[in-house]
Write a structure and sequence with these properties.
It comes from Arsenophonus apicola. The protein is built from nine helices and no strands. It has helices spanning 4-28, 34-59, 63-68, 76-97, 104-127, 140-160, 164-187, 197-220, 225-248. The protein is globular.
Amino acid sequence: MHELPLVFFTVFGQSAAGLFFVAYLSNKLNLINNNQLNAANFLAMVVMFLALAIGGLHVGQPIRFFNMLLGIGRSPMSNEAFFSGIFMALAIGTVVFSFFEKFTKLKQICNLAGVVAGLIFVWSIPQVYYIDTVANWNTHYTVLQMWMTCFIGGGALATLIGAHKLGALFFIIGAMVILATKAEYISLLNAKAIDQTWFWGIQLVILGLSLFVMAAVVLQDNVPRTTLVACTVIIFVAELSGRIAFYNLWEITM
């Protein structure tokens, strides 16, 4: 599948931005301490790095990434590339400054700026797929799905670093929105949607089962870490499966 690098790029990138946001908010609400925030920022940086590294395979030669920046402001793809780079740079800055106590202010500035840049990056991704000639992509459900990945992936990752309540809550919101809207979304698509039944089935079953785990996290806050890790892994399988289905819908309409 030619778009497979983009599957990982979008899912990992949106999840990294979601983690950056959920962890920052959790820290401000005194739900996690600074050490946990630093761990979350490091994890988000690693996930975003993986997103860019895998996504770069779609571009081919690395130099082409910089060529994409020539259209900033007028090209959605250039905007996406630009904001992904800004988010990554701020994530790195946040992590680096966290190692030096004298740079606490700079770390805080980078952290807040990184949250904003991450959310703008998430916003920029679906803009690439508003294409008049690809009817299956040119729908508001494209935006909805990608924002919910931010909630689902970011929330799941947040539970791993200790932001249990807020992370699980973000996941639950995202998963319930996807479960509630999937049928209507599919009804808007053409015959190619039938070929994606298995991918969407995997996504919906995993998200549905994971809701029970995350509900337990919210209610009890004593779910074993191994369970959270396993749940997070299969949640990413679900989101990757749903994103594969999305890219498989590509078809030029007349």
